[in-house]
Amino acid sequence: MDWKQRCLAFLVAGSLFAPVAVWADTATDATPEPTPPVKADKHKAVKAETKTEDQAGDQTDSDNSIDELTAPATKADLEGVHEEVQQLRQEYTWQLATKTALSSRALSIGAIIQARYTHQEAYLSTGQWVGSNWGGATTNPALGNGDTFSVPLLVLSLQGSLLKDYQNGNNVNYLFSLQSINGGAPTALDAYISYNITPSNDNTQPQLVVSAGQFKKPFGLEPTTTEAYKPTINLAQFDQINGVGKRDAGIQLSGDLFPAIDFGNNYRVPLINYYAALINGVGPDALDTDNWKDVVGRIVINAPVDYNNFFRGFSVGGSAYQGWSNLQKAGNPNNVVGVSQKQWFGLDAAYVRTPVGFTFEYFKGQNPNAATDALGDITYTNVDSYLFDLFYNFGDKFVADYLNQNRYDDWYPKTYQPFFQYDRYNYNTAGTNTGTDVYTLGFNWFFGPTTKLQLNYNLVVVDGNTLSNGLSQEQAQFQFGF
Amino acid sequence: MKNIIIKSLVLLTLLIAPFSQAFSQDKSVPSKDVPKIIRFGVVGNAYTKPYGSGIIGILHQQGLLEKEFEKDGTQIQWNFFVATGPAINESIANDALDFASYGDLPTVIGKAGGLKTIVLASSGRGQNIYIGVPSTDTTTHSIADLKGKRVAFQKGTYIHLVFDRVLAAHGFTESDFQIYNLLNSDSNAAIAANRIDAIVSTDLRTLVAQGLAREIYNSKSEPDLFKGSGAFVVTEDFAKKYPDVVQRIVNQYVKAAYWASEEKNRDAYFYAVAKTGSPYSTTKYDFVGDSLRWRNNPLVDDFWFKYFQSTIDFSLSQKLIRNTFDLKSWPDLSYLNKALQDQGLADYWAGTSGPARKVAQN
Q1: Is the pTM of this model over 0.80?
Q2: ipTM of the modeled complex
Q3: B152 phi and psi, to 5 degrees?
Q4: B123 and chain A in contact, CB less than 8 A
Q5: Helix, strand, coil shares of chain A as percentages rounded to 5?
Q6: Would the CB atoms of A406 and B82 count as touching at under 8 Å?
Q7: Rounded to an integer, what distance in angstroms lies between the CA atom of residue A192 and that of residue A194?
Q8: Are A446 and A482 in contact (CB under 8 A)?
Q9: Which of A71, A280, B19, B254 has the least CB density, counted as fewest CB within 10 Å?
């Protein structure tokens, strides 16, 4: 390498390392503190007064440091930089080859873990409490587990982009996640590929995405909320009992229309969100058991307002599910004698913003009963449910862009969310005393971007019983992830 | 059932009460107290470095506020927002900030949208924009050559405002181009991948040095109204509650502005800006011909009012805001004027739109 080439290499290396060299200084006192004069009216007086001996000395030091930074490089300097670049290159190559996880495409790893403590004094049998497995953990004092620690949920997710389209954002993305419930064998949770049909780079335009694989059914408000954002520890009764929030395999179209943009707050809200899916209807990790595909859809109308508008966060939604399944002759599953239908309808309204918000959800369902005779007469059970949440949240967690900062230190944006939830579920609207009310008083403490402590007090009152006969349940849960 | 609901709501109220008390204090009563924490919002950068540029960058790097409030035990919290001005507006709306320094367009949109802020000083002026094309593009040499092509920048920022002004001066509008709303980091990646035809940026030199882009336009020779400015603001609640603290902060802000305006500190200032990750050479190139006093002028003067009125008018015409507001009543200059008088700087920045606008060096 001749002298000219070395000079060129030095200039390139210098431009790369200059900010790093300055960055290595401390955050404060890196530049001389300004010492403007006091009580002088004219700039000339300012200049005169600034030339005190001490201040002049300070400035001399500063000038010296600047001289050092801008002094011409020597040949030894160039060789030193060249040597250092070589060492860094070797170090980088070695680290990449030996200590870095690699994948063939962009990969982001995430996880959600729940560590829970539950205490309850009494046990409700299935007849009293339809959701005997309510909350994901059957706790029965008679069995000695009415007071228990548990790790009810582990979710490990991998996601990324299979094709990144910088021009239009017509990206192909993937999400794959595994879950383990109460220490059970891991099963697939989400497993789908998605494609942005419309340009996702331009958020002033409507968006449309198609997904194929196993995903959450687009039905309802609470069931479509991800685990990280559910206010309560237990699932809502209608969600848990009917499996509304469970994943299913199929294909889905989701998108929005008429977006309103508040550029000054980086806020985008479409007037309409819509979802439509064609699924097996048999739940996750299973082949279809009939020749029919179930159809599920959801539409949400949002208030298309600016960020500072009072109605920001207000939305109303509606969901519908139409499913079909074979009805087999009793004792002979190969003899299909009819087709049963499963129908769900849901309405919801939400006002989600800081500091006060609420959600309301109504669910009505018609579920087929198992065949009771050889001819396969079809009977149905009608169910309905009301769910109401009132919450008061304050802190940084719910300010989207506040969490996205340039920082060297880790930090804990604290957020507090006390809430009240009323959850009523009637497992047979044709019967009497067939409903269950669950009152939950809770407190969520978000003490990190992805960590929260949840405290729930649940009071379960079955129809026909008085408040004093209600079952009380206390729960504490850390939900954390990365 | 009604009893249960009522009891539950009472319990919820009791649960909330201790926390809500702190937020429900009457903020309109001036206090001689000093808050335990003062929260600042600053525009972040594409390099993920927690440093800012301009006057606020110097105020931060020199630790002037930390020293000023050390005896009070007050924590100075610095927040550098990756999503820049719009993220600052969002945080102010959610009571997550007390002070902020950011660009003209988001400050105007925030104020027009109902944010209760008071302008204390200017955050500087004269910020240029640059338009670059992929280095492999040898046929594009002007804005006119870009007509119909794909141009990327972050909407809602002062880059957006200045770009639109430049387009208007050249007889174009946004509709003459395919506009992509991308963050700086995404724009850089996109132009490196040749997936867009041009980017509008404040820092093109890095891409040019890497051989990824070629500059076809900069706003250096455009009228001053075509260059970015900004404001240093405080929330109305904080100013009402802690007027003495606001004065102490403005005092330090003026000290930082003075240091950042002295030509003897020119190189040191460029190195301070380099801490954001934007190379020294970029800032040096951007400041060629401009005096530091012009660029780091904290005054809310006739130029500032003219500039911001034009920003409001432009934002209305582009439908970026729906409502206007009284610009004259937005600033409270009592703090700035007192700081200038006390520090003997009343005339220091006056007239920098004239001869002091330029410097011969560089």
Answers
A1: no
A2: 0.76
A3: -120, 140
A4: no
A5: 20, 45, 35
A6: yes
A7: 7
A8: no
A9: A71
